[in-house]
Amino acid sequence: MNKYYIYFVFLLLNTALLFAHGTDYEVYTDGIVGIQAMYDNGMVMENSSVLIFAPNEAEVFLERVTDINGFVCFKPDRAGTWVLQVRGDGVHGMRINLNVDENMLVLDGGNNASEYIQKIIMAVCVVFGLISTALFFKSKKEK
Amino acid sequence: MRHKLFLIFLVILISFTCSKEKVEQVIGRGSIIFTANGEDFIREGFIDKNGWEINFKYFYINISEPTAYMPDKEGQYIKLGGDYWIDFMDFNSETGLVYIDEITDVPAGNYQSLKFGIRKNSSGLYNGYSIVMQGEARKERETVPFIIMLDEELDFDGKEGYVGDEVKGLLLDGKSTAVEMTFHVDHIFGDIDADKDSHVNTESVGFDFFNNFKIDNEVIVTQSEMKEQINYEKLVNAVWTLGHLGEGHCEASNQSSAGIFK
């Protein structure tokens, strides 16, 4: 039974990924938004300060730091445009607007990433989704 | 079977929840204040990459038609007409910002993006120059007064928006918001506190470049007089990266010196 639910969560996770629009961030589970911050040259913005602003608020809602892969995540608690300000090497930064709907899901894409990278990510998501589905039904068959 | 139906139900639910919905729009009217920021580099001075302690007495720049706009709504912009010859040393002591102008009773919205031109001044002492830096450079026992006059013209576009400690440009009903043009002078001089490999140091010229024009122990130089100097191209490229919104990058276009470098 536990195995069954592990496969299911994996499938669920990848299903959510398929609906993420954009390339410099991904919705990697329901209700939690994650982004990967990158420089123009494609290098990830690791250990960078991220200020998160709630919709229609000018003051900081939350402060985070990206991991070594440039990833950071947070849990939005209301619909609207969330603003993330990422400061990289102490010299430059980037701003990302995330339009979050009432289900706490991101509506549209970010910026600064190429269509080529986006296609690769989508392709990877589809492959993972198929593998997850296959594993899921295989586990059921074994039962 | 029960689990399978549960799975199908949840996948359908996710599909529905991922469909696009409208996000609440900002409505009403308010005011936009246009400001400029020379950062602590200009206000307090700094040590450049060559070890020169740089202090400014005046730092003039001629900003043309600053325009705050909403990147996702074509035609939604607020523009200040004309040119604004400002001095970064004439800043508000509390905020550090230079006040440019304010427009009241404009539609509320997210004016996160800002574009502005740099143009030659058309009157006064520095007629014909777009950026004038006046101050002193000190190194060891030497003090070199300088006046550096540039005539570069270009347009900056900070579509991505302000990056800093707060959100700027978000105008709510009955409120005011400030938008800020930030100029990174360390891109010209470098910064001894930054990494040697940082582009601030690798792509800047430092005061050594200007010190080559020293006569009678002072530097008074115009951009046209620097054209034959080694690293002139690097200087011009650095000027093209001066404009920011906080730490947010601005795209440069219509540079007057574009095309002269091969």
Summarize the structure.
The complex is a heterodimer of chains A (143) and B (262). Chain A contains 2 helices and 7 strands. With 143 residues, chain A is of the alpha+beta class.
Description:
The complex is a heterodimer of chains A (143) and B (262). Chain A has two helices and seven strands. With 143 residues, chain A is α+β, with helices and mostly antiparallel strands. Chain A folds into two domains: 53 residues; 81 residues, Sandwich (Immunoglobulin-like). Chain A has a four-stranded antiparallel beta sheet, with no helix packed on it. In chain A, a hairpin with an 8-residue loop joins strand 3 and strand 4. In chain A, helix 1 packs antiparallel against helix 2. By secondary structure, chain B is α+β, with helices and mostly antiparallel strands. Helix content of chain B is 17%, strand content 39%. Chain B has six helices and 18 strands. In chain B, the strands form three sheets. In chain B, strands 2, 3, 4, 5, 8, 9, 10, 11, 14, 15 and 18 form an eleven-stranded mixed beta sheet that branches. Classes of the chains: A alpha+beta (143), B alpha+beta (262). At the A-B interface, helix 1, strand 6 and strand 7 of A face helix 1 and strand 17 of B.
Keywords:
heterodimer, A: 143 residues, alpha+beta, Immunoglobulin-like, four-stranded antiparallel beta sheet, three-stranded antiparallel beta sheet, B: 262 residues, eleven-stranded mixed beta sheet, five-stranded mixed beta sheet, 17% helix, globular
Q: Quaternary state, please? A: heterodimer
Strand order of the largest sheet of chain A: 4-3-6-7
Q: Give the integer mean of the pLDDT values of chain B.
A: 91
SSE series of chain A: HEEEEEEEH
Order of helices and strands of chain B: HEHEEEEEEEEEEEEHHHEEHEEE
Q: Categorize the overall geometry of chain A.
A: extended
The CATH class of the largest domain in chain A, by name, is Mainly Beta
> Number of helix segments of chain B?
6
> What Rg of chain B is obtained from the alpha carbons, in whole angstroms?
23 Å
Q: What is the strand tally of chain B? A: 18
Radius of gyration of chain A: 17 Å
Give the largest interface pair and sizes.
A-B, 41 and 37 residues
Strand content of chain A: 25-35%
Task: Give the second-level CATH assignment, the architecture of the largest domain in chain A.
Answer: Sandwich
Q: What is the CATH homologous superfamily assignment of the largest domain in chain A?
A: Immunoglobulins
Question: Which structural class should the secondary elements of chain B be placed in?
Answer: alpha+beta
Count the E strands of chain A: 7
